[in-house]
Description:
- The chain contains 3 helices and no strands.
- With 44 residues, the chain is mainly α.
- The protein has one domain (2-43).
- α1 (2-8) packs antiparallel against α2.
- The radius of gyration is 11 Å and the shape is globular.
Amino acid sequence: MLMQLYDSLEDSYSVREQYDKLITMLKEEYEATPDESIQQWYQQ
Length: 44
């Protein structure tokens, strides 16, 4: 997952940017939210 790569590089800005893009895309295209496992990973 791209967010994990950015996290390993300690690039928190890019992690946040990718997470925001994911939320937007899922909401617009599928009226959904990220999987619970992704949400939990992001909150850590």
